Amino acid sequence: MPAHSTIPVTGEAAPSRGRFANTGNGPSLQPLDIGHAGYMALVDADTAFWALVRKDKLADTLAGGPLLQRYRGKSARFAEEMRLLRFGLKPSAVYFNPTERCNLNCRYCYIPEPMRRHGEHMSEAKLLEALRRLRTYFKTTVPDGRKPQIVFHGAEPLLNRHAVFAGIEAFGKDFRFGVQTNATLLDDSAIGFLTARNVSIGLSLDGPVATVADRTRANWGGEGVFGQVVAAMRRLRGYHAWSVIATITDQNLKSLTRLVEFFHRHEAPTCMLNILRCTLPPSRKVKPGDAIAARHFVAALDRTFELYRETGRRLPVANFANILLAILAPTARRLMCDISPCGGGRCFFAVAPNGDMFPCSEFIGLPEFRGGNLFSDDIANVIESRPFRLVTDRKVEDIAPCDRCAIRHFCGSPCPAEAHEMNGGMHRTGAFCEFYEEQVRYALRLIADDKHQAYLWENWDAGAETTFKLAL
What is the H or E stretch that residue 247 is in? Predict the structure, then answer.
């Protein structure tokens, strides 16, 4: 896991051909205003090399000097790291939907309503067969000594609890398991079973009070489930492998700061504040604007830092922490939505209850992205199918204006499903370009002020190697 130093110069590098910047004979470093009083960023957009340079030294740095000299010496290694990250990884995880049904009717769900109302469960026998097939496949893609990951995902996986638990019991030695649930069926018995087997548990909650959370997450009768989720959070307190996800919409923006306070108070080990995905039309009705979403998101991140200073206990916001890792140590990323190509069909794929395979769960409601079937097709062939290649061949270099953007490898122009359905094609941008841009600027400001460690997991850099460090 190569890592890079922080202040004032650090980054990933591309091959250089000569001595001078921005002349065609050397690396093209783009100045980026990060909104900091003392520092500017310099970025080589091709491979995400970046440096924080004092503003009073910017001109000298661009004209040549120690930065460019050191940059040339490391460039080949950094370029190869980025190539492998983008194009050399193989699948190691599955988002496994054991049922199409859900007992909630969330306003932004990416699964079509008819499927959630009337869909099918996967039988226990089929689920066990699916896990056997996946175990065999992953022996060809995952190194010895490492376990692939299965995340039982939704719709609501605990509606098919018997089959899910049978799979976890039978294959606990073969996979790392996780369950993403709305918590309405997460009773003491279920928690006991899952925690005893070290299963990761993800909950969903969009607000710190019922009046906010229930605006977007309610059952088919319109009743919210805030109380049930909070009860599950209380029962999980002290368990190391649980988290909570909030989806950012125009319905909860003003509550994000209170929401991280709420998560921190309930001792959530980690959380996610995920910006809305606009893949299906109903979700677009609660789409926030980029600028206001970024403002409230950054305010919530600021509050997590204050809480850390007050208590000594971190609350990593995993999706933002991943942006920090994309800058500090690109190959240490834990999520693959903010790299191009994204992880869909490349690092992971999704399985529907009938065995149909899709590049990502976001595509399950889009039949044209069905690449094949787990029970009837060779998995390796499905990975190379045209529907999968539509996703895995999507690169920021082919998308305008991403092809000219300095931070394109910190953002990745997400999300392909969203871009295709909302904006008309794989080579279009997603829904929140400016939101991601501000995240990167904010992350670089934190690094400049040496605050970034408070936003990351404990010991995130264990085993990391510093490959570039230069103080100017």
Answer: strand 242-248
Exposure class string for 30-43: b at 16+ Cβ within 10 A, else e = bbbebebeebbbbb
Tokens 């910017």 map to which residue?
A: 58
Q: What share of the chain is helix, strand, coil (3-state, %, to 5)?
A: 40, 15, 45
Q: Which helix (H) or strand (E) holds 82?
A: helix 66-87
Contact by Cβ (8 Å): 344, 88: no
CB 416 within 8 A of CB 388: no
Class of residue 225 by CB neighbours under 10 A (exposed 0-12, middle 13-18, buried 19+): buried
Q: For 139-187, how does the pLDDT look when each residue is reduced to its tens digit (9 = 90+)?
A: 999 999 999 999 999 899 999 999 999 999 999 999 999 999 999 999 9
Q: Which amino acid is at 100?
A: E
Q: Using alpha carbons, select from 280, 215, 207, 199 the residue that is nearest to residue 244.
A: 207
Find out whether 356 and 425 touch, Cβ atoms under 8 Å.
no
DSSP 368: G
Phi and psi, residue 224, nearest 5°: -75, 165
Which residues are CB-neighbours of 373 under 8 A, at least 6 positions away? 354, 355, 356, 357, 382
Place of tokens 């921005």: 22
Residue for token pair 């065999």: 136
Q: Determine the 3-state secondary structure of 311 from DSSP.
A: helix
CA distances from 250 to 254, 271, 301 (A): 8, 19, 18
Residues comprising the chain, all counted: 472
Between CA 409 and CA 83 the distance in angstroms is: 11
- Inter-CA distances, 123 with 101, 151, 371, Å: 13, 17, 22
Residue 467: pLDDT over 90? no
Whether the Cβ atoms of residue 199 and residue 241 lie closer than 8 Å to each other: yes
Tokens describing residue 201 = 């548990």
DSSP-derived secondary structure letter, 157 = G
Region class of 48: left (phi > 0), else alpha (psi between -120 and 50), else beta? left
Question: Which structure tokens are listed for 408?
Answer: 């394109």
* Alpha helix stretches (DSSP H) within 101-225: 113-118, 124-138, 161-170, 188-196, 210-213
Nearest to 241 by CA among 210, 212, 270: 270
d(CA 427, CA 143): 33
Q: How far apart are CA 357 and CA 369, in angstroms?
A: 8
> Where is pLDDT greater, at 267 or 68?
267
pLDDT tens digits, residue range 178-218? 999 999 999 999 999 999 999 999 999 999 999 999 999 99
Extract the tokens encoding 296. Answer: 């409230």
Compute the distance between CA of residue 386 and CA of residue 391 in angstroms, rounded to an integer.
9
